[in-house]
Design a protein that fits this description.
The protein is α+β, with helices and mostly antiparallel strands. It has a domain at about 1-90. Helices cover about 45% and strands about 15% of the residues. It has helices spanning about 85, 95-110, 115-135, 145, 155-170, 175-190, 200-205, 210-220, 225-235, and strands spanning about 5-10, 15-25, 30-35, 40, 45, 50-55, 60, 70, 80, 245. The strands form three sheets. A four-stranded mixed beta sheet has the order 8-1-2-9. Strands 5-4-3-10 form a four-stranded antiparallel beta sheet. Helix 7 packs antiparallel against helix 8 (about 210-220). The two termini are about 20 Å apart. Bound molecules: zinc ion. Zinc ion binds next to loops.
Amino acid sequence: MLKYDSYYFQCPNCNAWLEGRNLKSELVNEAILYSDGKVLYDNLITTRQKMVLCPSCGHAFWVEDPREPFITSEDPQAAVYSWNTWRFFGINFSDNRGKLALIQHYQQFLAKTHYEPKREIYLRRLLWWAYNDLHRNFHYIRLKYLLNGFMSYGVWSSYRRMLLEGEKLFIKNIKAFNDNLHRLLVLLEKHPEEQADLELPEIYRELRQFDKTKELLEKRSSRTHFTSEILRHLRWKDARVFMVTG
Ligand SMILES: [Zn+2]
């Protein structure tokens, strides 16, 4: 079964055709949600990539407005750069070097020019997730994930090695991580319409401002699985990103 719907668009600089993909809407419920708001399906992010580096000419551009004629679902009957050649700027995520390269891309985009708030929020949110990717699923380092037959020894031990190294890289970059979250907080507080549910309490938790997280959660009238999970991690004084549902 095809899990994605393809769409096509052209680079505004060289007119090369690129193929994009959207997860079929009926599959969104089967995806994994993380506390930072990142959603993965089959290990692929479901958020649409709005910042594109053209694989043909290297021009950076936004694909924001999913309307014809710029974006079409019709196969253009021309040579097309497949999704894999440009999504995440062609980065390979199977090791930490790829993850660091993604961080660098976002940092460079942010350093290059001034963006309107909506775009800056988008880029900073993806930068936040990219830092978290260094130690996302950190719980897998525990022996229980080997013992319960979830992974073979070979897979588990190489994944574990990558996560332990990723954790070191995360700590090494903690100042840049915090700076990004501080700036994202300022933007989201100014533009509440851009806030995702529980995004603010989660940002404070990841900044280790646990009292502020608690204060924000106590203001909410309803308790959900997500809020109880944040509270549980607060009690452990744990600031790492975690899996909410999966
Ligand atoms: Zn191009």
